[in-house]
Amino acid sequence: MCGRFTLRNIDELVSRYGSVNFDPSYNISPGHKLLALTDKLQEIEWGFSPYWANKPFNLINARIETLNEKPSFSNSNRCLIAADGWYEWKESQDQKQPFFHHLNGEIFFFGGIFGGYRGKVGCAIVTTEAIDSLKPIHERMPLIVSKSHFKNWLNGDEVDCMDSNVSKQIVKHRVSRHVNNPINNDPKCVFPTKEKEGPGEDLFS
């Protein structure tokens, strides 16, 4: 899954899409605003509820394997979610260790879905099976859409939109549990940590 991510490199987005009103973030959490590309680049809240729900679902992820089967997503639209990194937590004994996945500040786009619910637009990040090099941390990862397939994804075409080249270039490092608190939104979230591992903890077993 993907439960936190970053969007720090706003200058690159401005150079591509013009002025955007969005502050750099080191810790975008569910319920926060993010930048999504639809017919334009716009702010959308992270958390999706189908229009027919009696109460909010606030789904943050949608599995690509069942995207077209789940009733929750049957009337959703596609979007592309701007990011320059994301966090995953590796479970080990009684602790969860956060790791930061990134391309050294380079912008990429997650596949996403969005829709309206009682006058509010929300979205979810589409996930897929993690590539082999990332599976020691988590078995799932965000679907990173290739630039050449942006239109295919937005149009809902059934083609493989995963950017395998970008995915293979993703690097990761262990970060402080400072990021665990969604209130914390500063560079310390992404800094490599010097925290000691738990007793007997093997982070790559």
Keywords:
five-stranded antiparallel beta sheet, globular, disordered C terminus, five-stranded mixed barrel, mainly beta, 205 residues, hypothetical protein yedk fold, 35% strand, 10% helix
What does this entry look like structurally?
- This protein is mostly beta strands and 205 residues long.
- The protein has a single domain (4-189), classed as SOS response associated peptidase-like (hypothetical protein yedk fold, Alpha-Beta Complex), CATH 3.90.1680.10.
- The chain is 10% helix and 35% strand.
- The protein has helices at residues 10-17, 150-155, 164-169; strands spanning 4-7, 25-28, 33-37, 41-46, 61-63, 77-83, 85-92, 95-102, 108-117, 120-129, 140-142, 171-174.
- It has a 5-stranded antiparallel β-sheet, with no helix packed on it. Strands 3-4-10-9-6 form a 5-stranded mixed β-barrel.
- β7 (85-92) and β8 (95-102) form a beta hairpin.
- The protein is globular and about 45 Å long.
In short:
With 205 residues, the protein is mainly β. It has one domain (4-189): hypothetical protein yedk fold.
The CATH architecture category equals Alpha-Beta Complex
Q: What is the count of DSSP helices, taking H or I runs of 4+ residues? A: 3
Helix content: under 10%
Task: Using the coordinates above, name the CATH class.
Answer: Alpha Beta
